[in-house]
Amino acid sequence: MTDRSPRVLVVDDDDANRQLAVWALEAACEVAEHAGGEGAAERIVESRPDAVLLDLRMPKVNGLDVVRELADRAPDLLPRVVVITAETSQPAVDEIAAAPVAGVFPRPWEPDEFLDLVRRCCGR
């Protein structure tokens, strides 16, 4: 384990939701942002962050699409992914829950719980 801050990538198409996540994490983590699902899997593979906060509901390429692409390209990164969603009853959530991701986190969330989840995901 190193002394560096955990590197977290926030993937969300909604600017306000991304900024809220950055605000909750920036004091304890090095945070990068990616707007939407397009190109997200490639960025995750290239940057290999300690944790990925991935919105489920995004246009064009959604969180489930990103998880599927990671499963094909870099399955070792799936345990670093936390899927964020306000919808916990849809079939996509069940499929993601069956994938080896770190977890599914409901929206709205409390900042302290959110940071604790990211720290656990990063092994800190």
TrEMBL record:
The modification 4-aspartylphosphate is found at residue 55. InterPro entries: Bact_response_regulator, CheY-like_superfamily, Sig_transdc_resp-reg_receiver. Pfam families: Response_reg (PF00072). Residues 7-122 form the Response regulatory domain. Coiled coil: none annotated. It comes from the Bacteria. Keywords: Phosphoprotein. One of its GO terms (biological process) is phosphorelay signal transduction system. PANTHER family: REGULATORY PROTEIN (PTHR44591:SF18), STRESS RESPONSE REGULATOR PROTEIN 1 (PTHR44591). This is Response regulator. It comes from Marinicauda salina.
